[in-house]
Amino acid sequence: MQKNLGATVLGFVFFFAAINYVNSIDKKVGEVSALTSPFDYCVAVVNDDNPVQRFAGQAMPKEIVDGIRRAVNLGAEAPEGWIAGGTYWRCMDGSVYACFVGANLPCDEKADTGQEPSSAMLSYCKDNQSSGIIPAVVAGRASMYQWRCRSGTPEIIRQISKPDARGFLSNYWYRLGKPTSVE
User: Fold this and answer.
1) What is the 3-state secondary structure (H, E, C) of 151-165?
2) Burial of 8: CB neighbours in 10 Å, binned 0-12, 13-18, 19+
3) CA torsion angle for 136, 140, 146, 151 (degrees, to 10)?
4) Strands 174-176, 145-150: parallel, antiparallel or unpaired by DSSP?
5) Phi and psi (nearest 5°) for 15?
6) How much is the pTM?
7) At what angle do helices 2-33 and 38-45 cross, to 10 degrees?
8) Sequence-distant contacts of 79-84: CB under 8 A, at least 24 apart
């Protein structure tokens, strides 16, 4: 009987600990879902590759549009709506990162780290035996490598990028600093 009582008490302790843990998670999710600053949101969630799904603020906050405008040197004449429409943002290590699509940059894709040629590259090299470069549209815009055809076979020329800690092409993503308020 004593053994069963101990097991029952221990079971209740674990049960209430689990309820408290779930309640603390629910509270944190509620707090995060109320954040409207992308900078505060990223500090709270640390990593989020697609914050648009959970972020409570504007889908494309003005602070991000202004930050990417500065990061890629887009002039004042570039319309805000055009910049907003071509910008992706995410959270990495508690910071806000943004990427501007511009000339078809793969902001929404993780880096292709593969070193084996795709069927599209094999076909391209069959038709372009000694092409000095395989175009990105064939090799893939997210490829970390520059490719060419040598005697009808695709080969890597050099590595042109590397993935960041979350797997995206690091040379297209800019860490944005929290704007300082001007009073």
Assistant:
1) CCEEEEEEECCCECC
2) exposed
3) -90
4) unpaired
5) -60, -50
6) 0.77
7) 160
8) 84/60
Q: What is the mean pLDDT of each run of 10 residues along the chain (183 residues)?
A: 54 44 40 86 96 91 96 94 96 97 91 96 97 96 96 97 96 91 52
HEC string for the chain: CHHHHHHHHHHHHHHHHHHHHHHHHHHHHHHHHCCCCHHHHHHHHCCECCHHHCCCCCCCCHHHHHHHHHHCCCCCCCCHHHHHHCEEEEEECCEEEEEECCCCCCCCCECECCCCCCHHHHHHHHHCCCCCCCCHHHHCCCECEEEEEECCEEEEEEECCCECCCCEEHHHCEEECCCCCCC
d(CA 100, CA 107): 7
Beta sheet of 95-100, edge-to-edge order: 87-92, 95-100, 174-176
Place of tokens 């509270």: 27
Q: Which amino acid is at 135?
A: P
